[in-house]
Amino acid sequence: xxxxxxxxxxxxxxxxxxxxxxxxxxxxxxxxxxxxxxxxxxxxxxxxxxxxxxxxxxxxxxxxxxxxxxxxxxxxxxxxxxxxxxxxxxxxxxxxxxxxxxxxxxxxxxxxxxxxxxxxxxxxxxxxxxxxxxxxxxxxxxxxxxxxxxxxxxxxxxxxxxxxxxxxxxxxxxxxxxxxxxxxxxxxxxxxxxxxxxxxxxxxxxxxxxxxxxxxxxxxxxxxxxxxxxxxxxxxxxxxxxxxxxxxxxxxxxxxxxxxxxxxxxxxxxxxxxxxxxxxxxxxxxxxxxxxxxxxxxxxxxxxxxxxxxxxxxxxxxxxxxxxxxxxxxxxxxxxxxxxxxxxxxxxxxxxxxxxxxxxxxxxxxxxxxxxxxxxxxxxxxxxxxxxxxxxxxxxxxxxxxxxxxxxxxxxxxxxxxxxxxxxxxxxxxxxxxxxxxxxxxxxxxxxxxxxxxxxxxxxxxxxxxxxxxxxxxxxxxxxxxxxxxxxxxxxxxxxxxxxxxxxxxxxxxxxxxxxxxxxxxxxxxxxxxxxxxxxxxxxxxxxxxxxxxxxxxxxxxxxxxxxxxxxxxxxxxxxxxxxxxxxxxxxxxxxxxxxxxxxxxxxxxxxxxxxxxxxxxxxxxxxxxxxxxxxxxxxxxxxxxxxxxxxxxxxxxxxxxxxxxxxxxxxxxxxxxxxxxxxxxxxxxxxxxxxxxxxxxxxxxxxxxxxxxxxxxxxxxxxxxxxxxxxxxxxxxxxxxxxxxxxxxxxxxxxxxxxxxxxxxxxxxxxxxxxxxxxxxxxxxxxxxxxxxxxxxxxxxxxxxx
Amino acid sequence: xxxxxxxxxxxxxxxxxxxxxxxxxxxxxxxxxxxxxxxxxxxxxxxxxxxxxxxxxxxxxxxxxxxxxxxxxxxxxxxxxxxxxxxxxxxxxxxxxxxxxxxxxxxxxxxxxxxxxxxxxxxxxxxxxxxxxxxxxxxxxxxxxxxxxxxxxxxxxxxxxxxxxxxxxxxxxxxxxxxxxxxxxxxxxxxxxxxxxxx
Lengths: 803, 199
Ligand code: FES
Ligand code: FES
Prior knowledge:
The structure holds two protein chains of two kinds. Chain A is of the alpha+beta class. Chain A has 19 helices and 31 strands. In chain A, the strands form eight sheets. Chain A has a seven-stranded mixed β-sheet with strand order 4-8-2-15-12-13-14, sandwiched between helices. Chain A has a five-stranded mixed β-sheet with strand order 1-24-23-22-28. A five-stranded mixed β-sheet of chain A has the order 10-19-18-17-11. Chain A starts with 18 loop residues before the first strand and ends with a helix. Chain B has a five-stranded mixed β-sheet, with helices on both faces. Chain B is globular and about 45 Å long. Classes of the chains: A alpha+beta, B alpha+beta. At the A-B interface, strand 1, helix 1 and helix 17 of A face helix 4, helix 5, helix 6 and helix 7 of B. Bound molecules: FE2/S2 (inorganic) cluster (FES) (2 copies). One FE2/S2 (inorganic) cluster sits at the interface of chains B and A.
């Protein structure tokens, strides 16, 4: 425990608690240990960020722009401020320092709009009041005079001559190498000679693909509580993916040293990339510091759609060639990602989309270009799969097209070109761990197919609930056809391109009530992925204890990096493992000091901690941990790094940019009502290599969840932005659809464990790969059922019926 | 206005409730029962599902005044509710709840209960944990209330029955497979069997 510290702010009525788990027999790595926060979550006691509460708190509300691009001529807050129950109304003019923007990589995002707004829903003013409805009503009284400006919404309008510049005075480090100031970043990847190689091709297949704007749609809204401290600082309880990244962006805007912004992770209701950027963090702190009172902000769903970045919509042009015997000759491709009004993670998304544009295939001659635009569309940034998703959608469609043109089986064609350990990536980086692409395809294909439905066979009466259209009772199966499709994908694990991607763990070991216990403290954001479960498993495995306490994540311990990029079990798991190993050595040193003279094995044998005892690798018990430690405690905080990466060359894209890759394959079985254009996914089987399943139950849960998000984008999910006005048309769960339990099929999962010798325990990041291939697998299955081309996500009824 | 109703068997009173406040808001912000979640507040996600006189409703769509004089069960009361149902052999009337006697003895669990290991859970709560149906857990309270009501009506639901009963509850994390597993597990363990009689 970190011990009692003087709280500089009064703690809220409910706070994140530490999680203590003991008494389970199956509890080390490789076991399906249950979540330590499970009971709290099923009883309603788990303190999510929107549950934070303080006796004396106010409610904050954000006024957002009603237009996508406009000059702000004036803002009149007087009437809002005069409303009874209102404590503060803030605009750009009230910001306390010269730092008025923030951003993950490029500081281009205004805390509150100044001078102009660049997208629909941009925050313009803040209100704090004693009731959320008072705050909303007061905000509605703020008068803003907008002078509309023309919008840029796609590549053509953004790069046209005389196009309005989204950011007039760019001075970021990408501006020097982009062809137009409305392009955030550009990454070409050139290897071999694609033009020459194309001449060897017997068939050439090209295609243009459109990937719609997906939303993370996590259920727990952006929310948190800021409590002003007596020292002029602030305590912030918030749901985020990376506390220290938030802190780095928040403190300068507030004009506070980082140690005066004390952040604690409160319960996170899902993230999927949508909490990498700031949302209400700075706003709540500003209101709390201004009013001297705790301020809670909870977005409603409408605001949540405006309050976080989305997945980049993309246009992708692909050309592949292949020889008669089915070998890919070359790839030319161009990927245009729409980053919207602010940069967010766009540069890194470009790096991923370009370096993974080939997919898990061997193609020696490539000519690739990926760019991200600035536009007046909603800002886009991180979402599960991060640039690799859009590319996978396109290259997998291409694989089916090439196979078809060659008259080959699509799975065999993929296997023939599949990368393996030792393959050189288009970036020149060798793949130096298992890459079982052909095997995953074999496995997913070998799974038994779901039985034919009765209406496809005997003409017997159908259970309409199982048909496309489901409970709506739209058909009895007359126009229903079945199709099967396959896809496979490659995703990088961890932050790439030379980023210092480290994590920190503090581990304490001591004897409490005669029992050795370990306490693990990291700043890792538990967003539902199960990191807290795995950290306790690692501590048990490494330290031989049963009882482990996981402390709430906060900024009193060093950075853990982001819970994203499938990296957290690898990196913070690695940090916990590493710190435990050092703690173990110190515990053994104490043992040697106390008992070393009694048994020669203390000096000579490899010693382990197991079952609360010190044992030799031969299994001989040397001492009880309780006797070794007595009232001593070992307490260490250490940083841990995986092997470094390097940036991609700006012109050729060459460089050892990625840490590790993960692979998943899907087989989709769909039924389509060709008359009504309705799709029912019957089954979505997945095979994935996870290196080592630290917690098999959680692994399968992650794969099924990722698969379902890919299914969503295939058939229903899209934020629709009006191309003329750049206004969002569907910011609600009524109009933005995510899969329900009726839309989601059985998801059988086959987990392969081929250890990566460079990673802790041989593990491989798992969270994102399943999101890549499920979308193209569903599309392939719908194409297989209908014979249609279908080059756009999501597939809508009108695409299937030609209406 | 003042609103008085019974929550998890306990009479509760809220003063100065504004007419537009939802039952969800009153539960969460005035009564200190944040178990029911606020994911959309427009009746689309089911995270706020509670039982109002036995019927599952989206509490975000119920005006607080509509709950006047009625019985509400939230996820916080689910374990007591299920235990009482099992003891009394069913809940056909939909008027299950805690007796006055029990209500007087009711206490909130301490907020610092850590993992709550050893806490008494309803069968469906335990099944959600055992089946790995909880990830971020934000959808969980609503799903538990809906699933518990399903099992009360139907002690051996088919997969299609489960899907139909839970179709109003969104979950973004799990892909639903393990939620199905949890409901099947709770049904197979059979603790709801006595409860379903007479329904
Ligand atoms: S919060 Fe009530 S249905 Fe979503
Ligand atoms: S577990 Fe996160 S929404 Fe269901």
